[in-house]
Amino acid sequence: MDRDSAASAPGSGARAGRPVGHRSVGSRLFGRVLEGGLLHGGVQGSPVLRLFMRWVRRPLLPVMRLWRRNIQLKVVATTLLMSLGVVLLLGFVVIGQVRNGLLDAKVKASQSQATGGFTAAKQKAEEAASTNGDDGTPADGRPSQNVIQWMSELVKSLSSGGQSAFDVVTLPMGGESGSGRGPRASGSVDWAVSVPEALRERIDGDTAAAQSYTRIVYNSDQPSQPGLVIGKQVNDPNGEPYQLYYLFPLTQEEKSLSLVRGTLATAGLFVVVLLGAIAWLVVRQVVTPVRMAASIAERLSAGRLQERMKVTGEDDIARLGEAFNKMAQNLQLKISQLEDLSRMQRRFVSDVSHELRTPLTTVRMAADVIHDARVDFDPVTARSAELLADQLDRFETLLADLLEISRFDAGAAALEAEPIDLREVVRRVVSGAEPLAERKGTGIRVVGDQQPVVAEADARRVERVLRNLVVNAVEHGEGRDVVVKLAAAGGAVAVAVRDYGVGLKPGEATRVFSRFWRADPARARTTGGTGLGLSIALEDARLHGGWLQAWGEPGGGSQFRLTLPRTADEPLRGSPIPLEPTDSRRNRGLNDAGLADPASARGADK
């Protein structure tokens, strides 16, 4: 487990990966497009695919950004899409019902007219047969001139009764176009195209009437039109069968259906737009107070604690506004109380620290006199004089730390930056810590001091930070070596102090910079620390615009990293030294017990 802490360092958080199932390439690509992965990230693949996705991504990014941030747009767009789907479904149903109704009415009327025409043709044939007698047919079997003329007059007579509502076509049985009873049609109907071949075959084999939908085509410039053709076998005056067809145009029904379609489309569009407007108005009434609350919350977080929501009415939104205002008022009261308390505490610490310096100076002078004369005392009194001097040293250090903390709290700390070589600072710190390291049996090794590591910094404050880190590493290193590493890259320099002692438990990497905090209160301290060293070091790093971060693992030691900008007031973008050392358990593929961890090893390989 990683236990990194960044006191003032921004980190670019790693995005956790999600398991991917066995899906096709197309489905994965489509899923990434819907989730915005291909719109916000890079595209792997051929240059043509990357160019295409870049061309598609550019106009869609603003739309997707607006879609993610605007709940009102989401609700209105969803309402419009659902309304459009409902309107389309209803439109299809209504149009289908209207079409079926129009066709049923037209078919019934056409069948009635065609039946009357068939009856009229039969009656005319019977009348003509009674007039012709036995001389109606010549000996060669061909129809007489009277029958041919009768057929022409029949077509003319039947079609004239429809007043252009239908056309009439007569055809010989079996396609006998060469006989005297050849095809005849009213108007300019192209019977060969207008009468379907399948219908003619049905009429040839059956005496019952039959019908079919067709496209009526004309030999003239008149445009074709949809129609209904009804046919039946009828006998001529000589008793010979022929085919009689009625062709009914469906133009009027088509116009009526088009009118219904247009009316439904207009009404549906109007309904969809109206529903969208209603949804926009309704959502606006809900979203506006929410946006106001979000805006006021941002102002509250910026420190403008007097901001409040405007409450009107007594509905749920009004109750939300009242609750929000009460919460803001309570927060303002609590924050004001805490600020007053913190101000009083800072003032108390500062005043007490200053007031204690005068009596402490007097006590120090007396203690120095006693300490210098201890050789004349008995052993017990001499030891007491030494303990008194040691505790006065700790007391002076504590007062100095409290005064420094009070300066940071009051914003009175000033930075005296100048170009310094951190190698010299590290050498002074290591030299000062060598006596303690010798008593602990610890070696201090410096790495990366071959090249200059120069930065604009306050040498006194940087030395105080590094002294605190090195002394802590020696104190808690359990006799193992301490490594001090220097590095510089880009616009940053860094110093890392690595120890191999007890390390840090999960969560302690962030708490270690708290004031008066100790990882183990029962652990004996031989260096007389006050518990404020790392807090002051953190404030010194922040004063430089730098980072002071900690990493550790139980039993694996810890590493503290100080990162400073090369130039004062230059923002940091990274550190030349990784926070987690390369010899950590995770990087070596080991678990907390020090055994090989296959999962960690695979993660490190990646």
Automatic annotation (TrEMBL):
Region listing for Disordered, in residue ranges: 1-21, 114-144, 567-606
Cellular component per GO, a single term: plasma membrane
Gene3D superfamilies linked: 1.10.287.130, 6.10.340.10, Histidine kinase-like ATPase, C-terminal domain
E.C. number: 2.7.13.3
Classification via NCBIfam families: MtrAB_MtrB
Membrane topology: Multi-pass membrane protein
Pfam families in the cross-refs: HAMP (PF00672), HATPase_c (PF02518), HisKA (PF00512)
Segments traversing the membrane: 75-95, 264-283
Ranges for domain HAMP: 284-336
Localization, UniProt: Cell membrane
Entry-linked InterPro entries: HAMP_dom, HATPase_C_sf, HATPase_dom, His_kinase_dom, HisK_dim/P_dom, HisK_dim/P_sf, MtrAB_MtrB, Sig_transdc_His_kin-like_C
PROSITE patterns linked: HAMP (PS50885), HIS_KIN (PS50109)
Chain intervals with Low complexity compositional bias: 1-19
Keywords for the protein's UniProt record, in alphabetical order: ATP-binding, Cell membrane, Kinase, Membrane, Nucleotide-binding, Phosphoprotein, Transferase, Transmembrane, Transmembrane helix, Two-component regulatory system
GO terms assigned for molecular function: ATP binding; phosphorelay sensor kinase activity
Identification of the protein by name: Sensor histidine kinase MtrB
Domain Histidine kinase positions: 351-568
SUPFAM superfamilies xrefs: ATPase domain of HSP90 chaperone/DNA topoisomerase II/histidine kinase, HAMP domain-like, Homodimeric domain of signal transducing histidine kinase
Catalytic activity: ATP + protein L-histidine = ADP + protein N-phospho-L-histidine
First-level EC class: transferase
